[in-house]
Amino acid sequence: MTPPPPQPPPSGTNPAADSAADPRPGPGPLVVLFGATAGALGPDLGSDETDLILLVWQVVEPRSRQVGTLHKSLVRAEAAALSPQCREASGLSADSLARAEPLDKVLQQFSQLVSGDVALLGGGPYMLCTDGQQLLRQVLHPEASRKNLVLPDTFFSFYDLRREFHVQHPSSRPARDLTVATMAQDLGLETDATEDDFGVWEVKTMVAVILHLLDGPSGQLFSKPEVVKQKYETGPCSKADVVDSETVVRARGLPWQSSDQDVARFFKGLNIARGGVALCLNAQGRRNGEALIRFVDSEQRDLALQRHKHHMGVRYIEVYKATGEEFVKIAGGTSLEVARFLSREDQVILRLRGLPFSAGPADVLGFLGPECPVTGGAEGLLFVRHPDGRPTGDAFALFACEELAQAALRRHKGTLGKRYIELFRSTAAEVQQVLNRYASSPLLPTLTAPLLPIPFPLAAGTGRDCVRLRGLPYTATIEDILSFLGEAAADIRPHGVHMVLNQQGRPSGDAFIQMTSAERALAAAQRCHKKAMKERYVEVVPCSTEEMSHVLMGGTLGRSGMSPPPCKLPCLSPPTYATFQATPTLIPTETAALYPSSALLPAARVPAAPTPVAYYPGPATQLYMNYTAYYPR
């Protein structure tokens, strides 16, 4: 069924008046739009981040049932390579696309031609109508954002023909499973099977489906357009909020300096809920490159998942499903002070870090200056404090617009008193996380040093009487190491097994073993080097006690030599392990009394397997003393 071509209005008639007087109901003019990219087609349109290469459109006047001229325009893509699927379906070549106009020129032509056709058919505001939501949400809006193009307002609302079809035919298959061909088939429409011009058959068939739907019971047909949000709206989230897990995703791999607006731009075309971007922080309060994003419905979430490994600048971003509980845990808060601070809408939030502890609102306002006023003056500042009221040196500030925030960011690393101040973009979720972090107890509470026997002192000197194990499975236990060493385990000194932990208090895959002599250490290394443990081969190399102590205190040991630990202050180490004493020539009587006589004899022995002891310092220690020690009986 091919729609009739448009006829010019007879002389002396007024098409606008005729259409207004037409008794048949219907919306304003519809622009039926079809598009294709150089990559995937159909339900995967836009999922591979390829550029738009084709637009086909035709205007329909629902009240008079007239149609305009069908237009087809090629679009020059930055990457001229066509996927096999696109090349086969479209018949296009890279040469034909190279002669086409760029996207901005095609959009200008589109607006001009549509305005002319609409005026010819009676005038009035028009709406776009597409087959599904991918073309606008997954192709046009993201590509325009990448190329810094401003789309006309008409591209921010549209009708989804699949949903309109499902409104009139609710017993048909779900809207997401419909296609142009299945809609025409369900309506019993005869289509032009000889039409082989890519995109033309689709538009003609969509027009035929629209005219058939308009001839049926209209009801709510073409009355509720789909809306694309033009900007992301910030807002608070409460711990009491219930968030549907079908609306949340996790984005991973974000640049550390990215803001909520950058994340919203990555998901351009999709509707993010108000306050729906929550940047995640690590234990030190800094961004860890992840964010949780909450969308307005599950359909938007499903489209967001198709942007897995799309790019933000030169970095690709991974997108996974997440839960509502995870979002509330990151973005939710209970503080009334924070709720009042975040209650102002459409505010840009900046974070100030490194403030003098004596700084007050007047000092911060003076630092920012009159050229970038804070919204509400002192009321627009939120200082972060410890539970006992002590300042942390952090604060948040509200600004009324992007221009004022940009002016404030130019004060980055400016000085206040004798300290330089860092300024960063922030989010409502980050405000909640920072306040929650200081208001609540740490996730891993600081444990007091365990009550242990007096450790056997580590020998000083550079004799290579130790071995270093690298590449251990993270699940390896003391017993696994003893079994791995085999007969060499009998030559381990008391207190001689040290497993190195990372900054999260988990095994790092390294361990140090103190042997009874340099000869025993060399023999163990030669016997066990690159021997397998749980499907992993383990490197075993001799080292000195000094090198072992250096690593256990937080330093690094590499090919270029030893690098000092971040801090060597004794106060940063557990009391029991504050320093390493030099080994005396003779074992003191007090020390010898702690061990059975068999532990002091050179005869071979099989060590027992007591429970490993671990010390986990608090956040202030930065885990410079990261190891567990094995104490044979």
TrEMBL record:
Subunit-structure text: Interacts with RBPMS.
Official protein name in the record: Epithelial splicing regulatory protein 2
Biased composition (Pro residues): 1-12
The keyword Nucleus appears for this protein: yes
GO cellular component annotations of the record: nucleus
Source species of the chain: Balaenoptera musculus
Region annotation (Disordered) ranges: 1-28
Annotated family: Belongs to the ESRP family.
Record InterPro entries: ESRP (IPR050666), Nucleotide-bd_a/b_plait_sf (IPR012677), RBD_domain_sf (IPR035979), RNaseH-like_sf (IPR012337), RNaseH_sf (IPR036397), RRM_dom (IPR000504)
Gene Ontology molecular functions: RNA binding
Keyword set, alphabetical order: mRNA processing, mRNA splicing, Nucleus, Repeat, RNA-binding
Keyword check for Disulfide bond: no
Matching PANTHER family: HETEROGENEOUS NUCLEAR RIBONUCLEOPROTEIN-RELATED
Subcellular localization(s) per the UniProt record: Nucleus
Function: mRNA splicing factor that regulates the formation of epithelial cell-specific isoforms. Specifically regulates the expression of FGFR2-IIIb, an epithelial cell-specific isoform of FGFR2. Also regulates the splicing of CD44, CTNND1, ENAH, 3 transcripts that undergo changes in splicing during the epithelial-to-mesenchymal transition (EMT). Acts by directly binding specific sequences in mRNAs. Binds the GU-rich sequence motifs in the ISE/ISS-3, a cis-element regulatory region present in the mRNA of FGFR2.
BP GO annotations: mRNA processing; RNA splicing
Residue span, RRM domain: 248-320, 349-424, 466-541
